[in-house]
Design a protein that fits this description.
single chain, alpha+beta, Beta-Lactamase, Heat Shock Protein 90, six-stranded mixed β-sheet, five-stranded mixed β-sheet, 10 helices, EC 2.7.13.3
Length: about 475
């Protein structure tokens, strides 16, 4: 059953049709009985008419010895009455042309059926008023039934033709009756993933109250679950970062105390740095999950955010002697500033990691109609066509955990990028770099209309970020 409304329409229409059929059948049978009675009454009236006319007319023409013959009136379009006038001893006195020259039935009073002239006839035998002769009145059975059915079906046809109209009325009424279900579904569909408010049960039909209560219970459990997960993320960030920071400090002190630096301590430092990076990526992956994301969307200057990402990683770019280019338009998108910054940092960080020293990197933001296209391009080793979907899987790295580039990583960067892309209903594609080798990452967003207030807010955020970076440098 794919549609409750369709199921109810079919069932109710079937019930109405069955009831109409039963009523029509009963009406048909009752009407046929009534028509039979009326036709028989007409035959009796015909006998009365013959009684009134024929005896006197026969006395006036008593000198005639032949049988009186009257023109035939039977046709396929109507049920005509035919007759024979017979004496007590069975001599035929008169007949209509459609009747045979012999007496068709025994002279016994009553109704009966008889066959002649290739038809079945309904016959009435009745004595004359003076009891000296008999009248035989006959009517073709097929014409009799056809006439009866034509009258009855005139009353049945409207009932049959009304069934489609009744079906449409049922469909409309059910649509009105199920409108609260449609409204409830629309309300749930239009809610954001972070909107876990209980459903309003005021003015809700009694049939939906139980469903709404179950949904509210589920929403409360989800809210509690997300709250626990948020607390866990905060606690984990604190509990994991603190000991890792302490390990880093002790490792640095150990390296200063031991000269020359032991290889094992250097490996220990690299392991601690990799563990720190992995913890940060896992926490970031959890914070940017679309189902758990608790951020607020706003108009974000993607071009300014890309420039900021370049500035933040300028030291690494200089260390590896990379040549970086930036081109594009002033582009705004609707999204979460922190999540978009994470996306840019991961894409630029990957390009820096896997591009050899002295390589080329480009970041572009283009406005294409109603779309904003972000491009991050390098001339590194690139990603083979068959691996471009797998790299979005968590913890997956080309060449295994120990990458050929000897670059530390955990395989979560592009997973975070995909989650941010999904969070913003954007599209990401990995293609061949225009440098001839390397990777080109294209992320397509829906452009956002920017207002003066958005621009002022973006400039304010930029100032705050600059101050924070300055204070961090001074510290």
């Amino acid at each position: 059953m794919k549609s409750i409304r369709g199921f109810l329409v079919i069932v109710l229409l079937a019930i109405v049709t069955l009831a109409n059929f039963a009523a029509a059948l009963r009406g048909y049978l009752g009407s046929m009985d009534e028509a039979e009675r009326l036709f028989n009454q007409r035959m009796l009236q015909q006998v009365d008419l013959l009684n009134y006319t024929f005896p006197q007319w026969r006395e006036q023409t008593s000198a005639r010895a032949d049988v009186l013959l009257f023109p035939a009136r039977t046709s396929d379009a109507e049920a005509s009455l035919e007759f024979q006038w017979v004496t007590q001893d069975g001599k035929l006195l008169a007949r209509s042309a459609a009747m045979p020259e012999q007496v068709v039935v025994p002279l016994v009073e009553g109704f009966r059926f008889v066959n002649f002239h290739h038809y079945r006839w309904h016959v009435l035998v009745a004595p004359s008023a003076d009891q000296k002769s008999w009248f035989i009145v006959a009517e073709r059975a097929d014409q009799r039934y056809r006439l009866a059915e034509s009258m009855i079906l005139q009353a049945v046809y409207p009932m049959v033709l009304a069934i489609p109209i009744i079906g449409l009325i049922i469909w409309w009424v059910l649509g009105v009756g199920l409108k609260p279900v449609t409204n409830l579904a629309r309300e749930l569909r239009q809610r954001e993933a972070t909107d876990l408010r209980s459903l309003d049960q005021q003015d809700m039909p009694a049939e939906l109250v139980q469903l709404a209560q179950s949904a509210n219970d589920l929403l409360r459990r989800l809210d509690a679950s997300f709250a626990r997960e948020k607390r866990f993320s905060g606690d984990a960030a604190h509990e994991l970062r603190t000991p890792i920071a302490a390990l880093k400090i002790h490792c640095e002190n150990l390296l200063h105390e031991l000269q020359p630096e032991p290889a094992s301590v250097i490996k220990l430092k690299q392991g601690i740095e990799r563990m720190s990076y992995l913890v940060e990526q896992i926490l970031l992956l959890n914070r940017t999950a679309p189902d758990h994301f608790m951020g607020t969307f706003e108009a974000v200057n993607l071009t300014q955010l890309a420039k900021q990402a370049i500035v933040e990683q300028s030291d690494t770019l200089e260390l590896k002697h990379h040549h970086i280019e930036f081109n594009g338009d002033e582009c705004w998108v609707s999204g979460d500033r922190a999540a978009l910054a994470s996306l840019l940092n991961n894409l630029l960080g990957n390009a820096i990691k896997y591009t050899p020293d002295g390589g080329r990197i480009a970041i572009n933001t283009w406005l294409r109609g109603r779309d904003v296209v972000l491009e991050v391009m390098d001339n590194g080793p690139g990603i083979p066509d068959g691996e471009r979907e797998r790299v979005f899987d968590r913890f997956y790295r080309l060449g295994g955990d120990r990458h050929n580039s000897k670059t530390p990583g955990c395989g979560l960067g592009l997973s975070i990028v995909r989650q941010v892309v999904d969070l913003h209903a954007a599209h990401i594609a990995l293609t061949q770099s225009r440098y001839g080798q390397g990777l080109l990452v294209m992320v397509t967003f829906v452009a956002s209309a920017v207002t003066d207030a958005d621009a002022k807010k973006a400039n304010h955020n930029k100032s705050l970020d600059h101050k924070a970076a300055t204070n961090e440098t001074n510290n």
